[in-house]
Amino acid sequence: MKDLSNYRKSYEKSELLETNIPEDPINLFNRWFHETEEFSTTEEVNAMTVSTIGLDGFPKSRVVLLKKFNEEGFIFYTNYNSEKGKAILNSPNVCLSFFWHSMERQIIIKGIAEKTPEIISDNYFASRPDGSKLGAIVSPQSEVIPSRDFLDIKLKELEKEFENKEIPRPENWGGFLIRPIEVEFWQGRANRLHDRIRYKLEDNFNWKIDRLSP
Predict the structure, then answer these.
(1) Residue 205: its pLDDT value, please?
(2) Crossing angle for the helix pair 130-138 and 148-161, nearest 10 degrees?
(3) Beta carbons within 8 Å of 3's beta carbon, 6+ residues apart
(4) At residue 12, what are phi and psi to the nearest 5 degrees?
(5) Which residues contact 203 (CB under 8 A, 6 or more apart)?
(6) What is the pLDDT, as a whole number, of residue 204?
(7) What is the per-residue pLDDT across 133-142, written as a single tens digit (0 to 9) for each?
(8) Residues identified as active-site
(9) HSE (CB half, 13 Å, CA atoms) of 135?
(10) How far apart are CA 114 and CA 120, in angstroms?
């Protein structure tokens, strides 16, 4: 067994103070996102962990790509028949998290998921490369398959079928909008006395801001 007890790092790059934050979490998320994009070496700033409660009662987390965010919330796309799609449709309470190591920052978002309108899913699907479109059709996501060849053969068949044709969005593929109800911002600080600022939605309108002990 490998002992990791001596793995330590001092976090000293920034601070998170109540005197320098906006009244709502989306504005602060936007600020942190663009600072990470501009000043860090993070390759996919929009990579986030989505945690759901599965049909088997266990939580499960996986990394997906955030594709849009605004004052309503956070959007990503998936196969609705996948394990995470079924989990979200069965229990829409989900958690998103971002960890930007180079900035010593983490964001944890609790929210309620809902399907995006079809027009939004259609527009995003239409913007994807043809290979990604066909991949969404080929893959019975999360299902057991006999081999890799199963996917490769099916892909070649679809490439011939849709050659020089428009590729339609499958009905079981689309977006989820996560409407946040709680957002916690974590900024690493020295001596493990990290800054933790939590925004909590009250009355479906106002955000209550609290500092949490590290």
Answers:
(1) 86
(2) 120
(3) none
(4) -145, 20
(5) none
(6) 81
(7) 999 999 989 9
(8) 192
(9) 7
(10) 13
Separation between Cα atoms, residue 152 and residue 115, nearest integer Å: 30
Question: Are the C-beta atoms of residues 139 and 199 closer than 8 Å to each other?
Answer: no
* pLDDT average, residue stretch 204-212: 94
User: What tokens appear for 65 in the block?
Assistant: 């790509």
Q: Angle at Cα 174 formed by Cα 205 and Cα 155, nearest 5°? A: 160
CA distance linking residue 124 with residue 128, whole number of Å? 7
In this structure, what is the dihedral angle of CA atoms 170, 91, 179, 50, given to the nearest 10 degrees?
-70
**Amino acid, res. 78:** T
User: Please, which pLDDT band fits residue 5 given cuts at 50, 70 and 90?
Assistant: low
* Element of type H or E holding 73: none
User: d(Cα 11, Cα 193) in Å, to the nearest integer?
Assistant: 9
Identity of the amino acid at 126: A
